[in-house]
Specification:
about 190 residues; mainly alpha; two-stranded antiparallel sheet; two-stranded parallel ribbon; about 10% strand
């Protein structure tokens, strides 16, 4: 019995080219930024102690858990090892430099360069049945939500539709547009980070 299976260019991109591009570019960027990450880890270790890398549980493609890597920072109400306010912590989060280790998540295939925001297990549970569509792709280092709502305090309920919209328009062109919009978004200052 012959089956008529047609694959759209978007499906081909999402299934084959996007994962290959993600891993290749992720590995190149992870290696290129390694000296910066090592300096940031040393700064974190000096200010906040061990461990300098946080491993945070997130939900990835097909509902699989993975550890998201980032430079260890403390909350604003805490102090560093010397009792000083956490200016370093705020600076790392405001500039998103604390997220550079996530390039290793991309290189390892846990994440994509562009995709829906990675959810923690509690957020994923709150979405109930609607989380299914998000789990068809890897979460992203950046995405439309991260660009549009960077640091403005919006929560998952306010932005879940942005991630679902991204999935409907998933293409090389939309990924490139998000990547190009990410750099200016990093330099926009917002009150909350």
């Amino acid at each position: 019995m012959e089956t008529d299976v047609t694959t759209s260019p978007t499906d081909t991109y999402a299934r084959f080219f996007k994962p290959l591009l993600d891993r290749a570019i992720g590995l190149v960027l992870a290696l290129a930024t390694l000296p910066i990450v090592l300096v940031l880890l040393a700064m974190s270790w000096s200010a906040f102690g061990w461990p300098p890398v946080e491993r945070v549980a997130r939900i990835g493609k097909n509902g699989r858990r993975f550890n998201l890597y980032r430079v260890n920072t403390r909350k604003d109400h805490q102090t560093d090892l010397r009792g000083r306010p956490l200016r370093l912590s705020r600076w790392l989060r405001r500039t998103s430099l604390d997220e550079l280790p996530q390039l290793w998540n991309v290189a390892l295939g846990h994440m994509s360069l562009v995709g829906p925001r990675p959810l923690n297990p509690i957020e994923a549970a709150q979405l109930d049945g609607t989380v299914g569509d998000r789990n068809l792709v890897r979460p992203g280092l950046t995405g439309p939500w991260q660009v549009e709502a960077r640091g403005d305090g919006r929560v998952l309920a306010d932005n879940h539709h942005v991630d679902l919209g991204y999935l409907e328009d998933l293409s090389f062109r939309s990924d490139l547009a998000v990547l190009l919009a990410t750099l200016p978004a990093l330099f926009r200052r917002r009150e909350q980070v």
